[in-house]
Each structure stands twice: as structure tokens, then as C-alpha cells.
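Example for tutorial group B:
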């Protein structure tokens, strides 16, 4: 289907039904991945009500056949086929080393275990390393080189005082009235410092969620921290979990304090320090939020271990086998309320892990400014952006006016239902670039798909195809093809080099 550039789509919905996606980790009683579960062996519940699973797949298991199909297509039709489903576009992992909320005496040990874990990683795993201090700092952007990552970790790490200054303490004077006034003032200062710490931490988690949201599939966040006290801030925690779940980020929280002794054992309490009771309470409660965030997002919580590198390795291993389940909820109240998720399997001895909730929101359409920002961010990216996996077939024709045919799996974009048809909106951008990387010309096609139930079933099996004729400039070295899903705001790109010619039979 050919689209006229810059057509403005219209989408009138009587009722919106959002597809909910759930990634599931399945392991046996020995902790080994279970790779042969069938769709009918899963049971999925939304607020306790059974739901029909609309789509299911096992991440990474269908990729070889998809590549083979594209290769065969290229051979049969003498076309060139390009794709962004390569090893280098694997789902990324972010490691967050939290020095803001980790005592100085635990920071060096956390660094040592982190470096040991990085040295054990296999090449080809895309990982970014961030450090949370007064601000969130990118020590290493995504790289698949363990050597580069380790060197960045060595250079970027510096121990620091936990919090924003010297520890708050106040000596008792022996005067009850004066001590009461001093304790009131120091308690207020202690609370303000803790509130600021919580604010900065949640802001960092929000930034990570926003950055990882457009990336395809399940993402992992390894948060190495001693935790933080969030008493009375239940709503703030829920909001952070909502953002992480909407971005499909599983959080693996690692308690950087290692093995914890029981309260009072080996304690060196200063009875003359008026803030000692406050600090003791914080130490007893600061780790409480970590298992909550981990369990709610489908990750794991590691504590009481002096081998943090083992925790890192186990968390990364979860990426190898992930079941993808999707369904259209029966409820019609998209009112922003929390819905509880439950996934079970009929196979005995299999343990499942998944996110436990979602908020029933319908995404608002992106503004023109947001679209422009998203485009600007990926134009200079050196590699294909894999928020949406798709391939581009260049059909034989005039070299200056080739036909670009995009093949997009239905599962890669988000659909809505108006009761009779399945609807989605896409933008397809063609950005011609010089060999130097500078933009030369940009055109856009807007795609408004409305599929009946039978057509949607066919598309689910065969994918959807979008064809556009692009007049290429004589000096253009490549065309960056971008697919923007207006519903999910996910973006995928495929670079098509023009030097190979439109009639070349090679593929990648």
C-alpha cells in the first residue's frame, strides 16, 4: 500500500482498548530456564478475572527463522532486504551504582564486585553504566565491549559521602529542655535531607524509565544501593513502579550493604548522639522499598550476600529466555486505576516471575514537539534503533526512484479496537544522509490502518507491508528509514545504504 507523503491521519474511536503486554520469566525448581512452555499452558488474570491471551511468543527463539525468511525473499526476488534485528540491537541492561544512598564503607566493596561481574560478562551484551551521586551521571553509554565498560567503571568511580554533606549528628547537653529543642531541629534537618535524597533518587528512576521506554522488549535495571527510607511516601513509590512497568523495565535491586547483622550485634552506638535513634530506624527500614520495587516489576531482590557479582550475573541471565504475553482487557474503564496482574502455568514445578500490575491509562497522542525531539535524538545514532523491529525491502527499479517496502510484524506496534476494527497509526520517515552523516532531505508518510477481524488475523500471521516511492538525491549515501508508532511512541530505524544500488541481491 502506497501512502502520500504528509497525509494527516484521522482516528475517531468510540472506545479505546489498550493491549497489555506482560513479560514472563519461567524457571524450574533448580533455577534453570524453561524454554518449551506452550501458549495454552499459561493462565492470565486481570484483577482476578481470566483473560484471553491474544499473542504469545518466546523472545529470541523466532529470530533465526525471521532472518532466514528475509534471506530467502532476497534470493527469490533479487531485491535488497535490510533489517534492524541484529545481535547488536539486543535488549539493553542499565547498571545504576547508587552512591547517593550507599554508606561510604560499602561503596568500595560494591565497586569491586561490579568490576568482577563485568569481567565475567560475555561480549555482545549491551550495557550502560550510570552513577547516582548529587546528579545522575552517564559513566558509559551502551556498549557491548566488556573491556571498554570496565575501563569506564574504573575511571568514573569515586567514593563519596552518602547524602549531601557530613553526617547529621548532635551531642546531648544534659539539659532536657535544651536537648528537646536540639532534637526537634536536627530531626527536621534529617527529614529534609532524606526527602531531598528520595526526590533525587526517584527523579533518576524517572529519567531511566523515559530513556528506556522506546526500546523494544524487556529491559533490565540493576540498581546497586543500600536503599532509602520512604516512610509515608507510598504514592511516590507507586508512581515510580508505574513508570518502570510502562517502560517494561524489570528492576533487580542489590543491597550494597552485603551481609547484615541483627540489630545491636556489634553495634557501636553513641548514647550521647541525639540522632542515633533516627539513624537506627533508617538503617532498619531503608531496605524495605527494594523488594517491593523488584517484585512489582518482575525483577529480583538480592540481600545478605557478599558476592554481589553473582547477583549481577543471575540478573543478566534472565534476559536469555523471556515469554511475551499480550491481551486486550475485558474491562472498559480506562480511568487510570491500578490493575493487578497474575500469571499461572498448568505445568507443575515451573515458577513464574512477571510484573504484578499496570495502570489503566490510554496513552495521549504525542505532540509535534515530542515527535521532533524523538526524531532529532535518533538521527545521529550510529546504529539501528530497535524500538520497533522491521525490515526494508528495496525493489528493483530506477536507482534514483526506488520503492521502499517496509515489512512490520503486527506484534511490534500497538493496536486499539473500536469494537469492529483494529486500529493503529504509524509515521514512516525517510531521512537521506550524506556520507558525512549530515541530513540531506526528509520525507514522511502517515499510515492509518483499520483492519477487520479477518484481515487482522492475516496480518498477525504475515505482517503488514507499507510501500513508498522515494526520490533519492544524487549525493545521498544512505537513507535512514524510521517507523514511529503514535500509540506506543516506540521508534525503530533501519539504515539503507544507497551505494549498493536498488537492484543488488545482497541482504543483511
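The residue assignment follows.
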Amino acid at each position: 500500500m502506497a501512502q502520500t507523503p504528509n497525509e494527516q491521519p484521522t482516528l475517531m474511536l468510540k472506545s479505546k482498548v489498550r493491549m497489555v503486554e506482560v513479560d514472563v520469566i519461567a524457571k524450574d525448581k533448580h533455577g534453570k530456564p524453561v524454554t518449551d512452555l506452550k501458549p495454552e499452558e499459561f493462565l492470565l488474570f486481570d484483577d482476578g478475572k481470566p483473560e484471553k491471551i491474544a499473542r504469545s511468543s518466546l523472545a529470541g527463539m523466532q529470530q533465526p527463522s525471521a532472518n532466514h525468511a528475509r534471506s530467502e525473499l532476497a534470493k527469490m526476488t533479487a531485491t535488497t532486504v535490510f533489517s534492524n534485528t541484529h545481535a547488536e540491537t539486543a535488549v539493553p541492561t542499565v547498571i545504576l551504582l547508587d552512591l547517593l544512598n550507599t554508606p561510604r564503607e560499602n561503596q568500595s566493596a560494591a565497586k569491586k564486585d561490579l568490576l568482577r561481574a563485568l569481567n565475567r560478562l560475555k561480549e555482545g551484551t549491551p550495557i550502560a553504566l550510570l552513577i547516582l551521586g548529587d546528579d545522575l551521571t552517564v559513566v558509559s553509554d551502551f556498549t557491548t565491549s566488556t573491556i571498554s565498560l570496565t575501563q569506564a567503571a574504573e575511571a568514573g568511580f569515586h567514593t563519596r559521602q552518602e547524602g549531601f554533606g557530613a553526617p547529621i549528628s548532635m551531642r546531648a547537653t544534659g539539659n532536657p529542655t535544651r536537648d528537646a529543642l536540639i532534637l526537634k531541629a536536627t530531626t527536621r534537618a534529617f527529614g529534609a535531607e532524606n526527602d531531598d535524597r528520595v526526590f533525587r533518587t526517584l527523579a533518576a528512576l524517572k529519567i531511566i524509565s523515559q530513556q528506556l521506554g522506546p526500546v523494544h522488549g524487556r529491559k533490565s535495571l540493576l540498581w546497586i544501593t543500600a536503599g532509602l527510607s520512604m516512610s509515608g511516601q507510598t504514592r511516590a513509590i507507586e508512581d515510580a513502579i508505574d513508570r518502570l512497568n510502562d517502560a517494561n523495565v524489570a528492576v533487580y535491586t542489590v543491597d550494597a550493604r552485603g551481609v547484615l547483622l541483627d540489630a545491636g550485634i556489634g553495634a557501636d552506638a553513641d548514647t550521647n548522639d541525639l540522632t542515633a535513634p533516627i539513624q537506627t530506624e533508617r538503617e532498619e527500614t531503608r531496605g524495605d522499598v527494594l523488594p517491593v520495587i523488584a517484585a512489582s516489576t518482575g525483577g529480583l531482590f538480592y540481600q545478605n550476600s557478599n558476592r554481589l557479582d553473582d547477583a549481577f550475573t543471575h540478573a543478566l541471565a534472565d534476559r536469555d529466555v523471556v515469554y511475551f504475553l499480550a491481551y486486550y482487557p475485558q474491562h472498559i474503564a480506562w480511568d487510570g486505576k491500578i490493575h493487578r496482574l497474575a500469571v499461572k502455568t498448568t505445568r507443575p514445578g515451573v515458577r513464574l516471575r512477571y510484573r504484578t500490575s499496570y495502570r489503566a491509562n490510554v496513552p495521549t497522542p504525542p505532540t509535534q514537539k515530542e515527535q521532533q525531539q524523538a526524531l532529532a535524538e535518533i538521527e545521529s545514532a550510529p546504529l539501528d534503533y530497535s524500538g520497533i523491529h522491521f525490515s526494508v525491502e528495496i525493489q528493483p527499479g530506477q536507482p534514483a526512484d526506488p520503492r521502499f517496502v517496509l515489512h512490520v510484524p503486527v506484534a511490534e506496534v500497538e493496536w486499539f479496537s473500536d469494537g469492529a476494527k483494529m486500529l493503529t497509526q504509524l509515521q514512516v520517515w525517510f531521512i537521506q544522509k550524506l556520507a558525512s552523516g549530515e541530513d540531506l532531505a526528509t520525507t514522511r508518510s502517515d499510515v492509518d490502518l483499520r483492519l477487520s477481524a479477518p484481515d487482522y488475523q492475516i496480518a498477525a500471521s504475515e505482517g503488514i507491508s507499507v510501500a513508498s516511492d522515494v526520490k533519492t538525491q544524487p549525493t545521498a549515501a544512505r537513507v535512514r528509514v524510521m517507523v514511529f508508532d503514535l500509540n506506543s511512541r516506540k521508534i525503530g530505524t533501519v539504515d539503507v545504504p544507497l551505494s549498493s544500488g536498488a537492484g543488488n541481491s545482497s541482504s543483511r
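Confidence is low (pLDDT under 50) at residues 1-15, 60-78, 261-267, 500-508. Compare this with the pattern of hydrophobic and polar residues in the output above.
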